User: Which sequence fits this backbone?
């Protein structure tokens, strides 16, 4: 091989490596964009369920995705991206709650009830559905914190017991017992509410 061929061969290798790196970076960026597109709503609901403030929930979701961007090189190692992302946002909102050391405003439950979907219903049916949603959410708010967390992740985010255990850092049996207590408490609260009407 002549000196000219060796130099040309070396340049080709460098160009191939650069192209490979660019393609890898584009693939990572596309994966992050797909995560944002697919899970923003879910993460917002999780954050809002704890923070009870729309702006704070949006900030928490944004912070979660910023953390994903910082660790994008290890994205391929994540087995269940949904649970991983929920765990990230859950930790963020709990950290914010610990720092704030305040109880969430319950007035925001009315806002959540107002924005729940009610497509295809008459105005009267929508009003009735909104009242029902508000009463159910008010009952959820009355639950003890541990039971409320498990119920919200199970009922609203449809996570399995294993996924909830991973998000909360507790055992699966603890999840099941908290969920059992939460459902029993909810049944009692809803029965009591019906008896008042």
Assistant:
């Amino acid at each position: 091989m002549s000196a000219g061929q060796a130099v040309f061969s070396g340049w080709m290798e460098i160009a191939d490596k650069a192209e490979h790196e660019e393609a890898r970076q584009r693939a990572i960026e596309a994966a992050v964009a797909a995560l944002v597109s697919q899970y923003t709503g879910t993460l917002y609901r999780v954050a809002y369920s704890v923070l009870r403030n729309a702006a704070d929930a949006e900030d928490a979701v944004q912070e979660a995705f910023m953390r994903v961007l910082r660790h994008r090189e290890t994205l391929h190692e994540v087995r269940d991206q949904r649970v991983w992302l929920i765990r990230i946002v859950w930790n963020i909102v709990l950290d914010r709650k610990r720092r704030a050391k305040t109880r969430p405003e319950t007035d925001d439950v009315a806002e959540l009830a107002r924005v729940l979907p009610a497509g295809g219903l008459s105005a009267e049916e929508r009003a009735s559905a909104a009242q029902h949603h508000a009463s159910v959410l008010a009952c959820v708010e009355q639950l003890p914190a541990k039971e409320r967390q498990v119920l919200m992740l199970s009922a609203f985010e449809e996570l399995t017991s294993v996924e909830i255990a991973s998000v909360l850092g507790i055992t699966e049996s603890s999840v099941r017992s908290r969920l059992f207590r939460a459902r029993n408490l909810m049944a009692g609260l809803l029965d009591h509410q019906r008896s008042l009407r």
Observations:
- Residues 103-110 have pLDDT under 50 and may be disordered.
- The chain is about 80% helix and 0% strand.
